[in-house]
Each structure stands twice: as structure tokens, then as C-alpha cells.
Amino acid sequence: MLHILAGGWGYPNLGDEAILTGYRDFFASQRIDALVTSANPERTASAIGVPRHDLGVEGSALTGHSTGSMILGGGGYLNASWIPEIHRKLKRLIADRRSRPLVGHSIEVRGVEDPRFRRKLARLLSEEARISVRDEQSADALSRIGHNVDVLPDAISLLYPAVNKFAGHISYVTGRVVLNLLDISRRPDSTESLFPVDRWNDFASQLISRLGSKCIVMTVGDGDEKFLLSLPPVDVIKPKTVTEMISVLASASGVISVRMHPALIASMIGRPTLSIPYCGKVRPTLKKLRLDELLVQSADVDEALARLTDERSFDEAWSAAHAECASWLRDLVGSDQSPRADAR
Prior knowledge:
This protein is 37% helix and 17% strand. The chain is of the alpha/beta class.
């Protein structure tokens, strides 16, 4: 049985494509057949290293395919503030779902107060859907529109058993602290930040100055490079694929990241890691993963650098997160099964 796997794929964000890499590895291990659809199949194919013809075009309705479930993979793309792309995306997802059973796996939902977004989301997530989310805020949001859901760890946990096979060695990065920096103050969700936004630019500048040649900035998505123009000169590395991004993180002596998924992957492979809670999704996601000690809520550079010397393993937390996330999905779509009627 062929399932459809849709999600936040095809956008200039390697963190989301890393989530997809985890799904593909998990599905292969379980012998689950799934056609991946992408908003930009060429970009996704390049990012994850597969032939373009292996991917479907999101929104094409896929009428030529005999399918099982439509699976909405994890990530934060179901967000009303993502204007105008979210409305185009929901239209495409609705077209692809048609009458197929739907499984929403470890998704994040924000902004159901927006009437237009709420109506389209309701069309996509019909009452027949089985849904899990990655944080309690998403669960509360969906409960307001009549859905009872399960709360799971972030879907990046599916990557955990296989992450080291993607981790190469980059000598240019070895022994250096990798930073990923965004202009937090310009984001519409900056009011949710647990880090003092008015101190962020100074904090980022001090990090670069204090680390000097031991510092390198990794850019992995839209907006990463533009912010660097306001900061002291610094070496930059621009991975183009998921494998390259994981290799950068694996080669580092430590990682401080605004983007959430690079921080999660770095902790997964045992690097001293700090995560900047720049918006409301970060803390609840890390809390569910039992990784909330990675959060940085102070603009104290000395404290941050001292924390980067703390090497510890999070294997226990990641192993538990993977087991929970994988078990839920396996029960619904494993062994060539569509969602069972009694699973609701």
C-alpha cells in the first residue's frame, strides 16, 4: 500500500528537510511505502540526495496513485502567520488528501483564531483524521476546533537511530563553535521570545568577538545571511544538503543555534548545545523532548560560553523520544495498514 507523506518540504530550510530524512529512514526500516510530496521537488531532491522523479508535486492531487493514508509529517508549517504561503499550502494539501484517511504526525498548529486559516484547516483535518502534535499549545489550539489529539515528541526524533550515518567530518569546522543566528527582533513571533530580544544583537556580536577564530556561522535558511551584515566579520559555512548540515554540526566543538532543529540535531549527536528560545514553539518542544536544559534565557555571554564546555549525552532522552514518536506512527500506518477505525 502506498501512502502519501506531505509536510514542510521544499522550502529553503534544511531543518525541515532533516525531519523528512528521518521519516524516510524510519519508513525504510519498517518497509512502509510512501510517496513524498514537496512544494519544490527539485529543492527537496537536492537537499536530501534523491532523484527528482522519486518525489511528487504537492497539490497535484495524485489521482494516478492507489494510496493508503495521507500522512502530514511533523514541523511548524501549519501556522496562520505564514502569510501568504500558508493559504496556498492548505489548498494544495486539501487537494492531495481528497477522501484519503489522514494521519497528522507530531505537527505544530498556530493561529486557529484566524477565521480564514481555521476554515481551511478544518477542511484538511476532518473528523476522520487521527492527529498528534508536538506541544501542548498545539493540542489546545486543535481542541478549540473540536479535535482531541495526542502529544508526541518532535518528529526529528525519527532521525535519531540513523543520524550518525549522515555525520561526516569537515576539517574547516573541527574544534570551532558553530553559531546559527537570525534577526529575532524582525520576526512577527518575537513577542513570544524567552530570550531578551532587546539584548539579542549585542549578545550575538559579543559571541562572535569573544570566540574570534574559533567561531563559524552556519546559514541554513532564508534570513540567516542578511542578519550577519549587522554583526562583526565572521567565517560563514553554507551547507546545501542535510548531510552537509549534520556534518557541520558533528564537526563542531559546540553549537549555539536560533533555529530549533540544528540545535536538536547537535544535541542528538552529543555536541554541547545551546538553543535560543526565540519564539513560543521552542520551549514546549524541548520540554517534551526532555531537553529544556539546552535553553538560553539570559544574555550573559560568559554564562553561555561556560555552558558550552559541558559535554553530556542525551541519548536516553532521544531514545525515549524516538520510541514514543515511532510507536505512534507505526501503529497507524505500519505493516501496510491505513488508520484503523478503532484507533480514534
